[in-house]
Amino acid sequence: MGTSMGEFVSAAVARVMSAEDILTIVIRQAKNVEECCIGGGMLAVLHDPDMYETTPVFKENSTLAAVNTHEHFVVSGTLEGLRRISLFLKEKNISYLLLPVSGAYHSGQIDPAASVYKDFLRQYVFNPPEIPLISCSRAAILETIPQDYFWEVVRQPIRFRETVEYLENRGTYIYLDLGPSGTLANFLAQNLGADSRSEYLATLTPFNSDEKQFEKVCKFFSKKKLPRIRESGRSIEKKGNTMKAFVFPGQGSQKKGMGGSLFDEFQEITSKADEICGYSVKELCIEDPHERLGQTDFTQPALYVVNALMWMKKTAENQELPDFLAGHSLGEYNALYAAGAFDFETGLRLVKERGRLMSLAQGGGMAAVVGLDEKKIADILQENNFATISLANRNSPGQVVIAGLAADIEKAEPVFQKAGAKTFIRLKVSAAFHSPYMADAAKEFTDFLEQFSFCDLHIPVISNVTARPYPDGESKKLLIAQMTSPVQWTDSIRYLMGKGVTEFEEIGPGNVLTGLIRRIKKECTPLTEEQLAGDRKQEIFQNKTGGIITALSLGSAAFRKEYGLKYAYIAGGMFRGISSAEMVIAMAKSGMMGYFGAGGLEPEVIEKSIRKIQAALNGEPFGMNFLHNYENPEAEEKYLDLYLKYGIKDIEASAYMQMSPALVRYRLSGLQDGSNGAVIPSHRIMAKLSRPEVARVFLSPAPERIVNKLLENKKITLKQAELSRNLPMADAICIEADSGGHTDAGMPYTLMPAILRLREEVKREFGYEKHIFIGAAGGIGTPEAAAAAFILGAEFILTGSVNQCTAEAATSDVVKDLLQQINVQDTDYAPAGDMFETGAKIQVLKKGVFFPARANRLYELYRQYNSLDEIDAKTKQQLEEKYFRRRFDEIWEDTKAFFRQRDPEQIRKAEKNPKHKMSLIFRWYFAHSVRLALEGNTEEKVNFQIHTGPALGAFNQWVKGTELEDWRNRHADAIGKKLMEETAILLNRRFEEMNMG
Question: Domains plus CATH for the chain?
């Protein structure tokens, strides 16, 4: 029986609907009344209810809302109307109380909400009550539930006095008031006649004596011989062969007063708990004077202790042990303790540290989604790109908890509501428990666990991670995985049902798990014999994939260690200093690596940048790009001398087709012979390439002919020449797929496996001891792309295009505005200016510019004609007026001035060869188009040459609608962290989905 709001609770207990659905309609009712109705209130009057009918001030200003006893009634009305009634009662010296409500419930003032609320109720189907349900709005037992019933209970008057009379005429009862203040018990005292044989008592009182009151209730019922009731409402006797499971609740079941007299009953255990925790656990649970019971680092130890005490009490009273044990999240530690994995003290120490580590995590959030199944929720997350959110608790059909970044949880609420979620409740937590965001905590917990030894279990315990029993020797591994994995509660209960368990008993405060289990049993089938038979296969798969993937663990640990990095992530060098000193510094300080984009810059500019980077860093690793100059090898030597002068330890070799003397000299300079016979290089080379034959060049030792030439010219020592035979040219190879800038439009799915196999082949051929790292670049702008790279075998990833559209990139704002708008289809291929005659390609921006079309046109003209004179007059006019906006002779004078200082041989060659002269004039356009873009010349925007790939388009779509949509909020290091973090989350989710079958 319930009154007003209590009727909703009564309906839930009688299984008219699930508790979750009941909560949904309660919330909807409150919202509808608040939105549709004017404010009002309710006034309780301690007098004969007949007064209402005989007193005009009541009839004129209110509606009779409740008759509770012959000396207690309630009226509803406007606040002004209630004020008038209050003045009247005060004048008559009649006691009254304004109730703490914001609406005039049980009156016509809430009728504006009727239609919308009734419409909302029509989507639900109400079950017949499984326990007799007495309605105080009808003063009768309900055999079926009318469609508008839940509107009636807030609109119709409360007929409590009449309902008690109805019951008393039918029999004798024990009335147990489950309200927070004992109000209904007081009403019963006035309503029950002197000849009534019924009894009544309250569980809670407003006088801070709940423990004593609870003991009184327990003592009262201990003297009663009452039949046990199964869900159908029939009395039963337990059969001897019934399979039983005890389950322990987790965080969320704690409440002030929990544990009660158990602390005094088990004083020795309580003292041990106080000693381990460093505070009085009894005081925390019973009084909570400092309001810490809701804090994770206090909640978990307290709840573990109370669960354990209740287990001790249970086993002391009844020696019969359950067939299985299970616990929800924290409760799993109690299950393991009960199964003999460890003693009470060890379990408490584990829980205390677990709670401490979990409480340190910040920035996360969780929410309970009610009314959608698990697959629908997963689909919504994927379709709306909520990569940071994952499923955390699969509690029951229609109730799933999600976890992720707090900001994304907030953004997800309207999305789920629109998709049909009945309720979306954000939980009061500061972290994303049971998600990959607990990885750091799990890593620390792993180290903590090492000091403990666990025993074999003498009762099977069902794991939250696998929904299967703990295998021997797997306890530590599963407890670690539990921190980052979802709680598989539904499947855990289904497994037990499949094993024949019919009785579940919750050991701990509250009955949260009991409600979840009831719903699971009602709506789910037990696991079949075939599914149970597949357990071993599933366990094998889980053992292989049960590790925790984090942003810090992605890629190769050896790579991170050798390069001194936190993340296996690199920002590649973009020419003309687009990969700026600021970008390199930011990457280094964030535990990643950046290569300065030295290509196309004068030595003095590069030198200034090196000084700036070295001054800003304190030993953090960084590198310089080393762009191949096949026409002018002497230029490479100048760059190399500069790098050696400033002690540059790392370079990124790009655009190489074959080895150059400068690159070999850099590699061999400073070579040392290690004590164990290993060759120790002083300089590391990472080669960016996209062809297996070029990979072989870098996987092999330095070419003998180049080594001999360097030795002959005294550029290296004899010892260095000898050591070079046992050392590959590269420490790392970065396989470029379809990247921005120089590209062979490679396919990563074919390149990566081929070059990985080639590495092993060459390693065997030369007998290397040293490992050569293989990474991936090109097309990496989203977690999905990065995940694919790591799955293919990449030991690190390198990004380029996504970093060009950041605050640190040294290009014009005009270019960044263009790049911010592109999609994956907005790039094209064009000839590379520095390798124009060979036909080598670069990938550039197509949207909003003419450069790729014009550049390809110039290359076709170069192939078709042997000199400018052979080109027809109309085409030449178009080139001068539309493309170049300068005459050929003016361009030639600028070109000669350029090469006169750098490579005079090019001028002599052009004067003898008209085709070469045409090539140099056409190449002027390529250099000119780059300058226009870097300077942001808006009048020449159509001629901008902007190197970029589709990865940036994919990135733009990924961050669309977030603060990163604007490039001004994009920072290369932050992008790197975000990409690695969300890649880890994605991989964990994918493995989980595959694990589920």
Answer: 5-222 (3.40.366.10), 243-361+432-545 (3.40.366.10), 599-785 (3.20.20), 813-945 (no CATH)
